[in-house]
Amino acid sequence: MEILAALAPASPAAVKADPKTDATKKASTGMAAEPKVDPLAQCLRDWDAGTHMTRQEWARTCRRVVGNRAKFLSAQEGN
């Protein structure tokens, strides 16, 4: 059941950025702030009912792919 809650689409209020926070970030760094995106959450949001996978299968695949990518990036930093 926890997975289904994580797969629920984000509300528009949750997605909407706070202009004050964004302006503060831009001013403090001198450049446009890039929003932080959680790769797992983004992958879970990308599921579509037209896919050949159930939500549970998609979530399992997202976790595997995001985990493998994290390991790959970590290994690349070590070289």
Quickly describe the structure.
With 79 residues, this protein is an all-alpha fold.
**Spans of at least 5 consecutive residues with low confidence:** 11-15
Radius of gyration, taken over Cα atoms and rounded to an integer in Å: 16 Å
Total of domains: 1
Would you report the number of β strands? Answer: 0
Describe the structure.
- The protein is mainly alpha-helical and 79 residues long.
- It has one domain (2-78).
- Helices cover 66% and strands 0% of the residues.
- The chain contains five helices and no strands.
- The protein has helices spanning 2-7, 12-15, 19-29, 39-45, 55-78.
- α4 (39-45) packs antiparallel against α5.
- The longest helix has 24 residues, at 55-78.
- The radius of gyration is 16 Å and the shape is flat.
SSE layout and pairing:
Layout: H1 2-7, H2 12-15, H3 19-29, H4 39-45, H5 55-78
Keywords:
single chain; 79 residues; mainly alpha; 66% helix; 0% strand; flat
